[in-house]
Amino acid sequence: MSHYKERTEKNCLNCGTEVAGRYCQQCGQENIIARESFWSLLTHFVYDITHFDSKFFGTMSQLLTKPGKLSLEYIQGKRNSQLNPIRMYVFTSAFFFIIFFTMYNTENIGKSDSDKRKEKLESLKLAKEVVQEKPLLSTNAVERETAQRVLAGLEKDIKALEKEIKDKKIADSIRSATGKEILDTLEKEGIKVPGNLKIDEEDQGLNINMSTDSSNDAFSSSNYESLEAYRRMQEALPKDKKDSWIKKIFVTKIIAASETGKLKGERAYLQSFLNNLFHSFPKMLFASLPLFAWFLQLLYGRRKDLFYSDHAIFTIHTYCATFIFLLGSFALGALQDYTDWGIINLAQVIITISVYLYLYKGMRKFYGESRKKTLLKFILLNILSFFMMMVLLVIFTAISAAQAVNSGH
């Protein structure tokens, strides 16, 4: 039932039929006052967005506190007091990804701490120049005094950051020197180290790769910066040395993006690739939903009373609860950035464990099997889900790399 006021007249405004109740028995239109106040429009907007008519909080409360019960009641026909599962998924996933993309972006992916410090230092120096040029020279005394305080704070932060960068450089130099000493000692002693041992010029430290293959091995696909070279080498290599077909798809797309980036601006193409991959997460999760439900159908194949749609309802409710748990983790992460409280890290670990515990409890309630059987199927479901997400990640990574290449043409 809506929240609009019912008309005293009993003629339907849509078809003219004499109305016996609140709704027209002929066309189904609600017999309510046609003119609405602004407040009525506003409240109706809120109700439509959140179904804020006792269903919203009631459904969410039951979803989070009683795993599996909401899904069980839905397939049993108790639906009038619940939010529709599809609507719930659309609402929670949309809200989740709005927050996710607001809090996280691809700008900082791949940046080292050193890069971030340098960018911060440049930002502080720019702010200092602006304050010196404008407010500090103002004719207004209050503005000048404020500018002086702000300038003092900026200078303090700049000095602290410059000291931090300098200390990091000294520490890196020590690490680099120590690494070189280790290499020299090993060479003098004639000790052969398995794998690769070298000084990483970027990180200024000792980098150990325990692979038995050399970093210059022609069989290593990571060394190719030319797509044509990679293809020709794959054709010429012995069968046991060739990459698998899945790896070929993945590597081909990455090399293509890298090769184009070399020609037209490497960072721009890398940024485009990361951005495409980052914004593929909603699609990836949506694609995983029917597969997750299918896994449940395989695991509970003997339950002839359950249809695929029933497993899908349980999956949707599980995904919605997971979104809410992750939103809580994001909120704690944001609080951690401001407070630096160690206990928040513990709380985030507890939330992560809660997601898995929620799935186990939900399976136990919804399917009604013993703890031992539920635990076994829970483990199998997580293994299947892991491989599913790996395959989806490879597919969407390849798509993102292809989009990054195509966007440059």
**Order of the strands making up the biggest sheet:** 1-2
What is the string of SSEs from the N terminus onward? HHHHHHEEHHHHHHH
State the helix count. 13
Our estimate of the beta-strand percent is: under 5%
Oligomer: single chain
In percent, how helical is the residue content?
Answer: 55-70%
Mean pLDDT rating: 76
Number of strands: 2
**Main sheet, how many strands, which sense, barrel?**
2 strands, antiparallel
Describe the structure in your own words.
This protein is mostly helical. Helices cover 67% and strands 2% of the residues. It has a two-stranded antiparallel ribbon with strand order 1-2. Helix 3 packs antiparallel against helix 11 and helix 8 runs parallel beside helix 13. The relative contact order is 0.09.
Give a concise summary:
By secondary structure, the protein is mostly helical. The protein contains 13 helices and 2 strands, in the order H-H-H-H-H-H-E-E-H-H-H-H-H-H-H. It has helices at about 40-50, 55-65, 70-75, 85-105, 115-135, 140-190, 225-235, 245-265, 265-280, 280-300, 310-340, 345-365, 370-405, and strands spanning about 195-200, 205-210.
